[in-house]
């Protein structure tokens, strides 16, 4: 026994619907004759997730395009930009930026002697003075 529908979306006429079970593909009406269906497009605002092929993204140098990762700025070389606030060449000069793996020679190099915990005020003062002397000798702090 099924259900009888008298209208669907304003369409009139009785249709008997079976209860449960499955429908044969041959019994489905209104399906496309070819799969996949014909090529079509969607507005970019309709795409909620996924990845786009780079060929689909408008690339270039105008205000309505996206710059590729290998783009350059005409007339602006690293050497020409050295000394500016935003772009610097790598190096050790006053107008150059240091590389991320740079080091400071003589600063906190080597190892320090083991120091026991202070047990009273005089030993704390002695150990603090020894630490200050090491920091001064390595250029971490100044003064005498």
Task: Give a concise summary.
With 144 residues, this protein is low in regular secondary structure.
The radius of gyration computed from the alpha-carbon positions, rounded to a whole number of angstroms, is 38 Å
How are the strands of the biggest sheet laid out side by side?
A: 1-2
Strand content: 5-15%
Secondary-structure element series: EEHH
Class inferred from helices and paired strands: little secondary structure
Principal-axis shape equals: elongated
End-to-end Cα distance, whole Å, is 102 Å
Low-confidence parts = none
Alpha plus pi helix count: 2
- Total number of beta strands: 2
Average residue-wise pLDDT: 74
The largest pleated sheet is described as:
2 strands, antiparallel
The quaternary organization reads as: single chain
The portion of residues assigned to helices is: 10-25%
Polypeptide structure, described:
This protein is low in regular secondary structure. The chain is built from two helices and two strands. The longest helix is centred in the last third of the chain and has 17 residues, at 121-137. The protein is elongated, with a radius of gyration of 38 Å. The model has no long low-confidence stretch (mean pLDDT 74).
List keywords for this structure.
little secondary structure; 2 helices; two-stranded antiparallel sheet
Helix-strand blueprint:
Elements: E1 3-8, E2 11-17, H1 78-81, H2 121-137
Antiparallel strand pairs: 1-2
């Amino acid at each position: 026994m099924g259900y009888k529908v008298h209208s669907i979306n304003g369409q009139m006429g009785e249709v008997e619907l079976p209860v449960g079970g499955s429908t044969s593909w041959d019994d489905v009406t209104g399906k496309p004759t070819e799969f996949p269906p014909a090529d079509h497009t969607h507005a970019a605002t309709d795409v909620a997730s996924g990845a786009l092929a780079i060929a689909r993204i408008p690339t270039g140098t105008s205000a309505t395009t996206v710059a590729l990762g290998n783009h350059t700025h005409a007339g602006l070389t690293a050497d020409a930009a050295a000394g500016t606030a935003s772009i610097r060449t790598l190096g050790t000069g006053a107008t150059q930026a240091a590389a991320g793996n740079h080091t400071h020679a003589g600063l906190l190099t080597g190892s320090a002697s083991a120091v026991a915990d202070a047990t009273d005020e005089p030993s704390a003062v002695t150990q603090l003075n020894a630490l200050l002397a090491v920091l001064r000798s390595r250029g971490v702090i100044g003064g005498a």
